[in-house]
Amino acid sequence: MLEASKLLREKTRVLHEKAEQLTLLKQLAEGRITLAEYCRAVELFFGFWLLMEEKLKFYPKPTEASLGLEKLRLDLSHLGYSPKQILQLPVCEDDFKVETAANGLGVLYVALGSQLGRSIIYKNLQSRLDLPENSTSYFKPNDQLWANWRNFQMFLNASIQNVSQMEETLWAAKMTFQSFIRWFHINEKNGPVLTEPFLGTL
Ligand code: HEM
User: Fold this and answer.
1) Digits of tens for pLDDT over the chain (202 positions)?
2) CA–centroid distance, residue 120 to ligand 1 (Å)
3) In the structure, which protein residues have their CB atom closer than 6 angstroms to any atom of ligand 1?
4) In 10 A of CB 56, how many CB atoms?
5) Residue minimizing CA distance to atom 4 of ligand 1
6) What is the number of structural domains in the chain?
7) Buried b (16+ CB within 10 A) or exposed e, 62-71
8) CATH number of the domain that residue 67 is part of
9) Å from CA of 110 to ligand 1 middle
10) Is residue 201 part of a domain?
11) Directed axis angle between helix 101-113 and helix 145-159, to 10°?
12) CA 118 / ligand 1 centre spacing (Å)
């Protein structure tokens, strides 16, 4: 059997390409984004990973694995959202169920893998002088990024022991990508849900 990490990469390549084509993500990656669009993007990441965290709560993950929700909360608050407003942000809904540890690994694969592209986004956001200070921590790569990724790949490869676990993991990874793409696609054209936080700066 091909290593789980290699198979997941190969079988989700097309979905990754689709995600990169999302308008807001392209704008983020190229640093061509207004403050309102940036707020919308952070809201959408937050609403998406909140749902995925809920799905993952009963499944094992390496101790250093984080979906980035704390950083997103901090960024939202530096963008001017109050704790109450953050609680009111829309949360993604979908109907795929994480029912096994192998499913959980598929979701985690997408969540942790998605951090690898953030350094590109972070670099381009740095030239945006009108973004409030400390509002881009979610995208800031940490020094351990690649070491953590390699640890996760080892954890993944050691955890997937047979074809049926592999299928469950791949299925959940694909569902996570599809859910992400749908969530952004439906919502990215709208303005941010809350307009008050940055009214003064627009
Ligand atoms: C404009 C947006 C994005 C860019 C520029 C980007 C870029 C990248 C880059 C450079 C890598 C590392 C590839 C390598 O190993 O050399 C990567 C990996 C990955 N990205 Fe993205 N990405 C983006 C969006 C996303 C999104 C939205 C998701 C999922 C929600 C995602 C999931 C992943 C995954 C799972 C991997 C690991 C692939 C593997 O198994 O090696 N990416 N991305």
Assistant:
1) 789 999 999 999 999 999 999 999 999 998 888 999 999 999 999 999 999 999 999 887 777 788 999 999 999 999 999 999 999 999 999 989 999 999 999 999 999 999 999 888 998 888 777 888 899 999 999 899 999 999 999 999 999 989 999 999 999 999 999 999 999 999 988 767 665 555 444 3
2) 10
3) 8-9, 16, 19-20, 25, 29, 109-110, 113-114, 116-117, 120, 177, 180
4) 20
5) 117
6) 1
7) eeebbbbeeb
8) 1.20.910.10
9) 8
10) no
11) 160
12) 8
